[in-house]
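Hello,

Following up on my earlier ticket. Below are the two sequence lines again, exactly as submitted.
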Amino acid sequence: MNFEQSLHRKMRQFAEPAQRQVDAARDRVRQRLIGDPSSVYEGFIKLVDRQTSIRHRLSLRLVAVIAVASAVLLAQQIATRWPAQPETIQEKLSSPSVAERRTALPPAAPQETPAAPRPRLEFAAASIRIMPPKTMMTSAGLACHGRDGVKRAVLIITSDAQGAVTAPQGRCVGQGIFLSTLIEIAYGVTPRQLASGTGWAKTSGTVLEFGRGGNFVGLPAQWNGNQIGWFSNESFQIEAVAEDPSTATVAQLQQMLRNMIEDRFQLRFHRERREIPGYSLVVAEGGPKMNPIPGEYVESLVTSNGKSTMEQLARTLSSFLLDEVPVLDKTGLKGAYEYHLALWPPAPGTGPGAGANGGGTLRGGGAPAAEDRAKNLSARMEEQLGLRLQEEKAISVEVLVIDQVERPSPN
Amino acid sequence: MSIVSSFEERMAVGAVAGKIFSAEFERMFEEHHDLVYRTAYGVTASVEDAEDVAQTIFLQILQREIPVSSMENPAGYLYRSAVNISLTLVRSRARRISTTAGEILASRPTPAADPAEEERRKLYEAISSLPAKMAEILILRYQHDFSDARIAKMLGTSRGVIAVTLYRARARLKKMLRASPGEEQ
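Thanks for your patience. The regenerated structure is below:
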C-alpha cells in the first residue's frame, strides 16, 4: 500500500457516520442553539476549557517534578485507577451521546429516613421589587439556574435583548414577571392549570405576541419598538440567591421559590380536578404518514424534525404551540415515530395576517389566537403526518386554585 | 424586528423555546450542518467533540450576528472553521497526553490501544501541525473524497493550486510520519 492509499484509508475511517447519527447530531445542536442559553454556551466553554486546561496541566507537571517525594504516592494512586482511565474511541462512541447524558434524569436522591427532619430550603437572600404598570423593559421573564440546568419562563424578548432572560448559577433572576408566572415556575404548572387569584397577580388580556417557552399568550402591553411595558398589571423584579450557588439544583431552587412565595406573598392554595376545553390528537382519514422508529432512538421535540411517541408529540403541541391548551393523545399509535412538520407557510386563512386580510381571528398586536393556530396545526398535520386535532369540550386536568395571596412583604 | 415577522420566524422554525433563528440562518444551518459535523467527526472521531465543534461554529455566527447573506462563501467559511477547530482539539489532546501527570506514568506500560486508531490519531496530530490551508485541502481530498475541481470551487481557488498544495502536504506528512513506528512507507 503506498502512502497516498494509506492516507486515504486512515482518513476515511470516521468519514462517513451513519445518517441517523448525523440527523440526531443536527437536532441536538439545533436544540442547544435555540434553547437554553447556558447550554448554548456549554460547547464553546468546553472547548475554551480544554485550551486553558493545557496551561493548568503544565503547572501540574512542574509541581510533579518538584514534589519528587509525593510522586511515588501519586503514581500509586493513579495505578489503582489506571484500568478505568483511558476511554477508547469505541467505548466513547458506544456510550450515551451528549444530549442523552444531558437529558438523562439525575440520579434518584437517597431515601430519607422518616426520622430525618427535612431542612426547609430557602434562599440566602431574595429581593422582590414591584414594577408599576407601564414600566418599559426589553425582556420579561424569569430564569432559575441550577447546577443541573435552567428553568425559564419567557414572557417576551425584544429583538434588542435576545437571550436576556438568564441567571447566574445558583440564582433565580427575573423582571416583568407576574405572580402567576412565578407560581407556574415554582409549582411546575401551566397557565391553564392556575385558577383564581386577584387581578394584579394574573396574566390576562388580549393576545399581543411571543409567549412563554415559544407560545403566544395574551398579555396586555404597550410596545414602543424596542421595549415593552405591561399596561395595567403590576409585575415583579426578582433576584434571589441560594445559600450555596455552586451546588443548588433546579429542583432545589424551585422549592426555594415556593417557600419564598408562601412567605412573602402569603400564598395559600388547594388543588382540584377541573374539566377544561382542549384538543385530542387523532389519526386523520387515510392513516398516519410518519415513519415508525424501530428500537432505540434519541427523542427530538423540534417539530420540523421530530422523533417521539405520539403522547410526547401531544405534549409538545400543547406546550409549544397551543398556549398550554391540553392535547390528549388519542391516536392509538404505539411506539415512536419520525416526522417532519413544517408549519410555515400557514394553511390558508389561519396564519398571522389572516385576521386582517384573510378571515382568521387576530387580537391585539398580530398573533393568531389559539384556535387559529390549532386550525393551522391540524391542517398541516393532516397533510404531512396523517394526524389531526379534534376539539374536546372537556378534558380533566388538575388545577391549582389560589385561596389567598397578598402583595409581597418589603425586602 | 416587527411583531409579525418574529411570529413568522418562530413558526418557520417550528416554534421552539427561547431563541429566534432567522429563516436565513435556519436555511444555512440545514444546508451546511452535515458537512461541518462530518468534518469534525472525521477528524476528532468523537460524537461529542463533533457536536461541540458544530455548535461552536454556528454559535459564533449567531453571537457575532453575521448576516448570512453577507457571507460570500458560507460553505467554505464553515468548512474551514470546522477543520481548524477540530484540529485545535486534536492538538490539545496530544499536548494533554504529553503533560498529564505525565512523566510519572511514563515508565508504566501503555494499555493496549487499537493500533489502527493509534495510527489514525498520529496522522491527525501530524495534519494539525500543517499550515491550515494544507490541512483543509487534505481533509477535503482524503476524508471527504472531493475531486480537485470540487475542492477548488469550494475554497475559491484553482485546480492547479489544489494539486500543488496536495503534493506538498503529502510530502510533508510523509516526512513527519516516517519516524512513527509501523507507518507504511
